[in-house]
Design a protein that fits this description.
The protein contains three helices and seven strands. By secondary structure, the chain is an alpha/beta fold. It has a five-stranded mixed beta sheet. Strands 3-4 form a two-stranded parallel ribbon.
Amino acid sequence: MAGTVEQKLASQGITLPEPTSPVANYVGFVRTGNLLFVSGQVCFGADGKLIAKGKLGAGVTLEQGVAAAQGCAINLLAQIKAALGDLDKVVRVVRLGGFINSAPDFLDGPKVLNGASDLMVAAFGDKGRHARTTVGVASLPADAAVEVEGIFEVS
């Protein structure tokens, strides 16, 4: 039976995919003590295709970027479930780091990353409020529009 967090997500029409396997020499997550570090997740949808491909401000709209960031957050949650077995074991979302594939003059990276931040708050309530960094970058793997990593306090 799904826990409270997964039920909350399901009520919003969100189901967690199987987490993707790393494409290089790293692991999807590492737990040390009560912290879970989740590797960067690009914006693959449940169909295995990128939600948004290319650069924000040069072919990818703000709205598409927000949707891509939400997709990244869903993939983070899938990795957390793989690590812990239950999203209810998340005590706190500590930090999200977002990378936005951006045209040089695109300045709305923080608005894009709200797609991930808003989902964490929707899933975890006040425990989902977190510190955050947003960085515009020249490229991302597979030409993904967004990648998000996270640090979580867990029980």
